[in-house]
């Protein structure tokens, strides 16, 4: 029992009794180290690989200092390739294997802290692996010893979307592209018919739809479009005509009223002339003493009433003239408002036609590409082809290289799965230039 106690690591300030037995402890430790060296060839392959494994940031290792439980435990390698060791502090482990870490930690503890420390280091939790790309559940997964590329794909739920779903997606893309072309062509036909109708309304003539060409399978639609635009043209033209006719119907009434007032004015003027002649004769009789003054006053009153009526009739004639002028202005404004509306709609139609004409070539090209992709996918039907790449971070740099499904991964590897898409179909020169 005393000999076993001396084989444990001791502090640098031992008691005198223990100091006497230090050589025996050294012999026993040397014998134990020799046994460990002899046992190394008997380690399993996994342990041998761990011995050759060089740690990196993110690895968690377990450090055991025999006889010093308070100095043992797990620690993680930080971004500076260092670990924290009790009493010693930060110890750099950059580029070291587990055995080399044991030696470095033991050397650090022996440098003024413990006498002949025995240190064991094991890899408790290696860095995780990352699986991205064409898999069902991309993400971070814990590393398992001996995991292969195919095993990592299995951890991620297997490969991504099945090939049949890919072909279905391509067919859906083609249907959407074809529907886009049809919608643009329909919009172009509608806008062209509207422009023909607006031009006819602008010029005051009937629309001529003979230049309206039907697209694929749209004869019935074009016929309905022509009928609709013709009906709209007739309705708007008829509404304008009715509005103008209603205004024009007021003109004869105003003219009749003007003539009536003019006749009354002429009658009042004639009556005024007669009264004035009567006054001349009355004044002559009055100066001869043959007439009464009261009669003269009545004649003067009658003359004043006539003059007032004449002034009122002149005002009525002026008002009637203003009403006729306002009526002409309203008729003109109705026509101009109609033309302004036609011009505004035409500008909007021309702008939308320009945008549609600009979008149609690209839409047709996209539809053609989608159709060719569907054809290529059908021709190459079968198991999907995928490319596998691993990105591995070393101490000096990061490198990416292709791998096969059976290749083994290392902690911290990033596995990228790429589905090989069908080759792009050949494009005509004009289409390639547009692209």
Layout of helices and strands, plus pairs?
Elements lengths: L1 H5 L3 E2 L4 H5 L1 H18 L5 H8 L7 E6 L7 E4 L5 E4 L3 E4 L5 H13 L3 E2 L3 E7 L3 E5 L5 E3 L7 H7 L7 H41 L15 H30 L1 H39 L4 H87 L6 E8 L4 E5 L11 E6 L9 H6 L1
Parallel strand pairs: 8-12
Antiparallel strand pairs: 1-6, 2-3, 2-7, 4-5, 8-9, 10-11, 10-12
Report on this model:
The longest helix is centred in the C-terminal third of the chain and has 87 residues. Helix 9 runs antiparallel to helix 10. The chain is α+β, with helices and mostly antiparallel strands. The chain contains eleven helices and twelve strands. Strands 9-8-12-10-11 form a five-stranded mixed beta sheet, with helices on one face. Strands 3-2-7 form a three-stranded antiparallel beta sheet, with helices on one face. A two-stranded antiparallel ribbon has the order 1-6. The N terminus and C terminus are likely disordered. The radius of gyration is 54 Å and the shape is elongated.
Output the keywords:
single chain; 435 residues; alpha+beta; five-stranded mixed beta sheet; three-stranded antiparallel beta sheet; 11 helices; 12 strands; 13% strand
Structural class: alpha+beta
Number of helices: 11
Percent helix, as a range, is 55-70%
β-strand amount: 5-15%
Strand order of the largest sheet: 9-8-12-10-11
Number of strands: 12
Radius of gyration: 54 Å
Order of helices and strands: HEHHHEEEEHEEEEHHHHHEEEH
Largest sheet: 5 strands, mixed
**Based on CA inertia axes, which overall geometry fits?**
elongated
Q: Alpha-carbon distance between the termini? A: 87 Å
- Enumerate the spans where pLDDT stays under 50 for 5 or more consecutive residues: 1-47, 430-435
